[in-house]
Each structure stands twice: as structure tokens, then as C-alpha cells.
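Open question from group meeting: does this chain pack into something compact, or does most of it stay loose? Before anyone orders reagents, we agreed to write out a predicted structure and look at it together. Recording both the input and the output here so the notebook holds the full record.
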Amino acid sequence: MTSDLLAPLDLAFWNIESDQHPMHLGALGVFTAHSPTAGAHAADLLAARAAGVPGLRMRIRDVWQPLVYPPTFGSATREPAPHFDPLDHVRLHAPATDFHTAAGRLMERPLMRGRPPWEAHVLPGEDGTSFAVFFKFHHALADGLRALMLAAALMDPVDMPEPRPRPAEPPRALFPDVRKLPGLVRGTLSDVGRALDIGTSVARATLGVRSSPALTSRPTGTRRIAGVSLDLDDVHRVRKSVGGTVNDVLIAVVAGALRTWLDERGDGSEGVAPRALIPVSRRRPRTAHPQGNRLSGYLIRLPVDDPDPVGRLRAVRTAMDRNKDAGPNRGAGAVALLADHVPPLGHRLGGPVVGQAARLLFDILVTSVPLPSLGLKLGGCPLAEVYPLAPLARGQALAVAVSTFRGRVHYGLVADAEAVPDLHRLARALTEEVETLIIACGS
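C-alpha cells returned:
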């Protein structure tokens, strides 16, 4: 195992978090238990296997390197921890009556920054027929795809495609290679132009914002989690009727559910079109290396104010097609790429300020997490449900993550517990919206 400097976006995630807004992502996996002791056995297996997964031994350490080119001030490196005890990261809890409620309390606790930033919490079910494993990975350690690979490495052995090997990085030089200066200058000018384009798009996207106070929050540090499981065949029926992609349908379902939820709680949906950030991975699915985040995104206005469910879906499809035509390196949704233009010390000093700016950039996060269609097991117990959970940005009340797994769609909802005490009503609205779309499409 070797050490490497954090990529700019990783460094940003590392520096913008606070105790009330930790930047870890999560996943709640529910397993079918074959005995009442299956949860305890699963905890033992996770601890034993974690010692053999190199990526789980990596910690993040602040570094200062003034004598290299370019000089590095205020950066951080991902490196093997000198002392690694898996028992520090795997916890067996008392039996739980509701896995999502228990995971919500665990989600609000920051990861310890002095050791490898991940945890696995095993939650036995009170009835003995199931147990859950709640994983937490800091966003600076792994993005969604990398976190998936790390968690899958702890499951029972299966035939999974090997990631392509990562090419070795050349050592950092004391001085720049003068032969490369013309190309570096051209690349820098191109990057500056792209940064200006993104910045202009961000400013333009703030004009005429029509959001809802229900989607903003005074930071409380509390978390509430809910999960919704839907039939993927129902989503395909809607897609075949109206067109577009599965992801278009899943985003439109969020828009319709928000409309129902806002109207039911008395906030009202009239004139509401919140800005949704849709993250886009810039790495290929079979490539889990390098470990750092490779993310951009699309920014769209969710048509919450449209009373027609088919009209909402068509509006989402049009907005997503427009973003795809422009590409993930342009537009307000590509704001994550601006991290590449900030020096490490800027991330260190400006992190707290940037962390408070999320509300200005977007109103809600809606992210899709790819999962393999493999029959994963832990201790012989099959994985039945997987709910992805996204970090909740400062000043925002709700984040939505969605994945498809073995014929089911799983929505993972993360909310500020004080701002959204009725998260279960939004979860119910997601199920109702799919039924509404099926009827509206005549499917």
C-alpha cells in the first residue's frame, strides 16, 4: 500500500465538514437471517475480513510539502494507518425494532478523523429473521462506486470483475519540466475558460429560484432516515410509455412526491421548482481506481409546481437531455469541478465558508448509486435490500439517493430530524407517485 495526495474534490470534502454536517455517505443493507445469531456472526466476519482489505486500512493525514513542484501547503494524503484494529470500526448493536431509525442516529455521528474514516454497524432484528449492516464511508475516502467496492470486499466471496490496475504515478519533481510548459499553459488557459463558464452558469442558475422553506434548514446536526422499496418493473412500464431513461422516471418520482408532501404539510407546491443537483460520475464503471472522487453533475429545476404527472416526467426528461447534450464538464451542475482550481491551502482555509454555500448552489441532492446485480451474501445470509444514503449539506433539509438492486428500486432519504419530522410522509408519497404515473400513462 502506498500513500497519495488527496484529489482536490476529496480535499474539499475533508475540509468542509463539521460536527453537525459530517461528509460521510452511507448504505443500509438488510439481510435475511437464517438464525437469531446471524447478526453476531456477521459482525465477527466483517471484523475478520476488514483486516485483509487494503483500502480499509487507509487514513487521511494533513501534510505540508514546500520543497516539491508544485509546492503543497495545507493538503492531505491518503496513506496506510500505522495501527489498524478492525474492532475499532465494526460494532454489534442491540436488537433494533426499526433499522432506519437506528441508522439515522448513527448517521449523525461524525467519523473519527485520526483513523481510517469508515464504520460498519450490525443491527440484529428483534424478530431474529433479519439483520442490517449500516456502512459509513467518508466522502474523502471513497465515492459511491469506491465505497461499493470496499463493502463488497467484506461480503462472502463472489465472482466480481477485477478493477483495472491503476498506473503508477511519477514522483513529484522539485522543478517543472520546461519541455512541458507550452502544453501546461494551454491546459491552464482551457481550464480557466471552463471555470469561468461554470461560474457564470452558477450565477445564472440562482436567478428566479423558486424553492420551498421546507427544503432549507437551520443546522441542528440531527438526522432522520427513511427507505422506500419499489418494483423496478413498474418504473420500466412508465418509461416505455413516456420515453426517456429509468433515471428520468426516478427523478420525476421525486418531483411528484415533493409536490404531494408539500401540499399535505401545508407548505404548498404552487410556483415551486427547486434546483436539484444530479451528481455524475466521471469514472468508468469497471475502474475503481484511483480512489479519489471523480464527480461532476447536472443541475435541473424539479417541476414540483406542475400538476400533471406525465408533464413532470417530460419536463425532467427535457432538462436531463439538455444537460447531457452540454456534457458533464459545463453548466452550473459541474460546480464540483471548480475544486480543481483551488490550491490546497485554499481548501483548508475556505472549507468552512464553502460548506455554508451549498444552499446557494442547489436546493436538494438527488443521486443515483450503481449496484451490481449480484446475489451478495454475508455469512450465507442473502442481501435483500440496499438503501444508499447521501451526505446532507449545511442549510439543506433533505438529500435523496436511489439505487436499483435485483429487480427493486431503493430510495434512501436523509433529512434533518428537526426540520423534517414527517419524513415518513414523503416516503409514502414516493410509492404513491409511481402508482399515479402508472395510471396517468395507462400502463
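Observations to bring back to the group:
Confidence is low (pLDDT under 50) at residues 172-176, 184-196, 285-290, 337-341.
The first strand starts at residue 4 and ends at 5.
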